[in-house]
Protein: RNA exonuclease ngl2
Organism: Dimargaris verticillata
Amino acid sequence: MDDSKDTSPKAFVKRQWQTVPASTDSEPEAPALRFTIMTYNVMAPSLGKHSWLPNSTPRNLNGKTRRNRIIGEINHHRPDIICLQEVDDEKDFKPFYRPRLRKLHYRYRHKQPRVKNHGCCIAWDMRKWRLLDFESVVFNVHSHTQGIVEWYLTETGQALEDLSIDPAHTLMVDDLNQMWSSHNVNIATFAVLHHVGAADQAWFEYRDARNELLKQQRAVQRLMRRAKRDGLEEDPKLVASNEKLAILAGSRMPQPDQNFESIIVITCHLLWSPNAHFERLIQVMLVLRRVCHYNRNLRLPVVFAGDFNAAPIDPLYKGMVNQPLDATDCDVLLCSMEDYVQARFSHRYWGVPLPDSLFYYIPEQARKKYVAALIDQLKGAIRFNSAYNQPGLHPPPLDGEPTEHDEPPYTTYCQFVGTLDYIFYTADPQSIVAESPLAAKFPGRNRIILNRPVGDMDTEPLAPVDPWWKQCRPTKILEIPAPSTLEPGIPNARFGSDHLCLLTELKITHA
């Protein structure tokens, strides 16, 4: 049976909303924009192997069964915005998710690297949102992170010849002395979405109607050209229709509402390897570099949701939420940097045995300073809060030990049990640094969005504007189910993926 025709959602757990306590020092209520956003790693079909997930039965690993449970959850909650990861274009998206999302009044953008069998998707309720712009970032395509050798030479004012390098390692050091990029082919995408108000709705409806008139006019003109080509007389009705349609289509379009309610939504799927802390840091910096450059004059609220494959105790998470790193975190990043370089240059043959450290000629203190500088760049770009970092709203830790954070004890429950998925958001306009250390280093053209002030598109930057918003915070989050419903592991009879979906309602208060 063709599962694209099977529209009955299978059994799934109907999780409840939990109210997030409001801050005691919050300001008086002002007009606000409320919306819900979901992130969900739906598990690509190629990864649903029983040998990898022995706690799940073959039936629960079946792609058709899992997809129906997942779309059942989406249909039940109907979030305004959806971020999906591990979406296979040929096996999942085109035959299944695309027609069902369309039926539920969603529009979408899905991107998948050419050499990967799954990618990321952002979908939005077309009745509430309009897409203004969309970009994708494939992690192995760009090289924008300064390597440690170049950084150290710049920091100390030395030349490469001044370092105590074994002559046998000259070729190796030359290779390492370059910009670094991720060698992993995972992907991130971001969309600029505009919330449709009453005036905007009228504007978009007029635009759609005008486009339809233009289409009709082109059809009439084709008929007239065909008649002329065949030597037939012009049909007076066609001529009259063409003139009437031209007048209607050429009428002036009204300006959109000046209340500019737009947001930037990012989703990503970072490298899964447990020890790849350094490469995940590079991947996030690459994404934020694109977003910071885009947003440097607009200062729109940013929501960053996805599968980060990083635990709340990892350096990447601490950098995202602006927490200080301790000596252990720096050591973790240093070891991971060595692993990253070994993997990145594993195909090179330098003709000599490798030293214990590929950076033995750089003092250890300087190496630690380098990774700390990368984290500082991350913190200096956008300061995020985590929507699910809420005390007292989650099941207790499985080992009973207290934690230094208030994230859920797990968002995946299979062979590995832990928290890897997050919904990060910018709490206020000050969280977005207009001249961030990342935004200044990415070349690219300025974008024009609806009614923003503009200059020459190629030479003049967009004029900075006062943010239309002053605060963003979560008001509700979807509960994390108890372990008893997840044992012995997911996917099971009630959950369609090896990850749980996260869902929050955000409230953005107007300035």
In short: Residues 208-249 form one domain.
